[in-house]
């Protein structure tokens, strides 16, 4: 069979399977995206799974503690280091959050950047999302930075950067983030 006929046959079978399994198509696309993300990440797949598990454990523990009800806490785990961003009503809740993270299985380090302040508005959350997208776009435009190596999280104008990168790349990323309009502070959580 010629190469062209093989290509046409393979394409036809792929299209047929896609139509036949249309309910599974979204799952296939999602699984492919996760696979690509996992393949380009500097962490091992095991560490990526550990980080996801840590995040779920910490978020669950925080949500199950009634004292944290009036708080907004973002939890990000990267290479078993946990970053806490957000707002709590008093310093004892800030310490409670650190305590919960430290006592979570698998956590090696805690970056507690929680602020004792009122919970931010939806408008500020939208601005933070925009800031994060501007920073990532600048990273993409820079040929020295591999975007998949750096996690960017913005909360109330404060940008936290996490990842496993050389110190020169970390400093470059910090400088880029620092010069984005709307950024009030850059948190260096690199390893």
Key terms:
single chain; 6 helices; Histidine-containing Protein, Chain: A; 52% helix; 3-stranded mixed sheet; globular; 2 domains; 191 residues; alpha/beta; 6 strands; GMP Synthetase, Chain A, domain 3
Describe, in short, the structure shown.
52% of the residues lie in helices and 21% in strands. It is of the alpha/beta class and 191 residues long. The strands form two sheets. It has a three-stranded mixed beta sheet.
Can you walk through the features of this model?
- Residues 1-25 form the signal peptide.
- The protein is α/β, with parallel strands linked by helices.
- The protein has 2 domains: 31-116, 2-Layer Sandwich (Histidine-containing Protein, Chain: A), CATH 3.30.1340.30; 122-190, GMP Synthetase, Chain A, domain 3 (2-Layer Sandwich), CATH 3.30.300.130.
- The chain contains 6 helices and 6 strands; from the N terminus they run αααββαβαββαβ.
- α6 links the parallel β5 and β6.
- The radius of gyration is 21 Å and the shape is globular.
- It starts with a helix and ends with a strand.
């Amino acid at each position: 069979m010629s190469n062209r006929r093989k290509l046409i046959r393979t394409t036809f079978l792929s299209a047929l399977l896609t139509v036949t399994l249309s309910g599974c198509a979204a799952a296939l696309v999602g699984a492919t995206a996760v696979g690509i993300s996992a393949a380009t990440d500097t962490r091992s797949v095991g560490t990526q799974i550990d980080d996801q598990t840590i995040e779920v454990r910490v978020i669950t523990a925080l949500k199950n503690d009634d004292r944290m009800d009036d708080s907004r806490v973002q939890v990000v785990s990267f290479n078993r280091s946990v970053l806490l961003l957000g707002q709590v009503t008093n310093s004892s809740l800030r310490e409670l959050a650190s305590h919960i993270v430290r006592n979570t299985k698998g956590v090696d380090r805690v970056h507690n950047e929680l602020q004792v302040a009122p919970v931010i508005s939806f408008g500020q959350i939208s601005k933070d999302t925009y800031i994060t997208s501007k920073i990532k776009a600048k990273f993409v435009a820079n040929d020295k930075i591999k975007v998949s190596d750096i996690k960017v999280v913005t909360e109330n104008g404060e940008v936290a950067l996490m990842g496993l990168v050389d110190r020169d790349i970390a400093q470059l990323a910090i400088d880029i983030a620092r010069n984005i309009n709307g950024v009030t502070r850059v948190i260096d959580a690199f390893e």
